[in-house]
Design brief:
The protein contains 6 helices and 9 strands, in the order αββααβαββαββββα. The chain is α+β, with helices and mostly antiparallel strands and about 200 residues long. The strands form 2 sheets. Strands 2, 3, 7, 8 and 9 form a 5-stranded antiparallel beta sheet that branches. Strands 1-4-5-6 form a 4-stranded antiparallel beta sheet, sandwiched between helices.
C-alpha cells in the first residue's frame, strides 16, 4: 500500500482542530521488547528452566515459550524497547501486538499531530492485494494507542546493527520503543516523525 494514502485517513481519525504534522508506516523493531502490562502477565509454569525453553524454541520453532523467545530475540535482534510492565512503551507494544492476534497481517502507522503521538493499525492486509483490498484495509485503519506530546521525551533515528533507519521513541517515564522500516525503503518518513516529535 502506498504510504501517501494514509494522509486522508489519519485526518479523519484526529480530533477537530488537531493538525497532522507527520506520519510514517513502520513496524516495531525486532528484538526484546517491554513486558506486557501487569493485568496481562500470565504466570510462568513452575520449574520451567530458561535453558530448556531456549532448546525447545530451537528444536520446535512453532511452539513458543516466553523466556526462550526473549533470549532468542535478544541474541538475534538485540533490544527493541525497555520499560516496566504498564509503562508507556509496554502499553504501546501491547496495543500494536495484542496478546491473542487473529493471525492477520496489519501495518502500523505512526502519526504526530500538534497535540499527540498516534499509533494506528490498518485493517487486514493481503500479501497479493488489489486496489479494492488496499482501500478496504485503509478504511479500517484505527487509532490503537495515543499519548499526549508531553509524554514523549525524545525521538531519534539512527543505526541499529545493520539497519540505519531505526526510530527510537523515549517516553518521560523512562521507557522506550523502537520502530523500523525495511532496509530497501526510505528512512525519510521516520526522520520526519522524529523531527515532528522533537519540534
Amino acid at each position: 500500500m502506498d504510504a501517501t494514502g494514509y494522509r486522508d485517513r489519519i485526518g479523519q481519525l484526529v480530533e477537530p482542530g488537531e493538525q497532522v504534522l507527520s506520519y510514517a508506516q513502520a513496524e516495531i523493531g525486532g528484538g526484546v521488547t517491554p513486558p506486557p502490562p501487569p493485568d496481562e502477565v500470565a504466570a510462568d509454569a513452575p520449574g520451567r528452566a530458561t535453558v530448556t525453553s531456549v532448546l525447545l524454541n530451537l528444536l520446535v520453532p512453532l511452539a513458543t515459550w516466553d523466556r526462550g523467545d526473549r533470549l532468542v530475540d535478544l541474541i538475534g535482534w538485540g533490544i527493541a524497547g525497555r520499560g516496566a510492565p504498564g509503562s508507556a512503551a509496554s502499553r504501546l507494544h501491547r496495543a500494536v501486538n495484542p496478546a491473542r492476534p487473529d493471525g492477520k497481517l496489519r501495518h502500523t502507522v505512526l502519526a504526530v499531530t500538534d497535540r499527540r503521538l498516534l499509533v494506528c493499525v490498518t485493517g487486514a492486509v493481503k500479501l497479493l492485494s488489489n486496489r479494492d483490498d488496499d482501500e478496504r484495509s485503509l478504511a479500517e485503519t484505527r487509532v490503537a494507542w495515543a499519548a499526549p506530546r508531553a509524554e514523549v521525551a525524545s525521538a531519534r533515528v539512527g543505526w541499529h546493527r545493520l539497519n540505519p533507519k531505526r526510530l527510537r521513541i523515549d517516553f518521560t517515564d523512562g521507557s522506550w520503543l523502537a520502530f523500523t522500516v525495511p532496509i530497501a525503503e526510505s528512512g525519510a518518513p521516520l526522520r520526519a516523525v522524529a523531527a515532528a516529535l522533537a519540534g
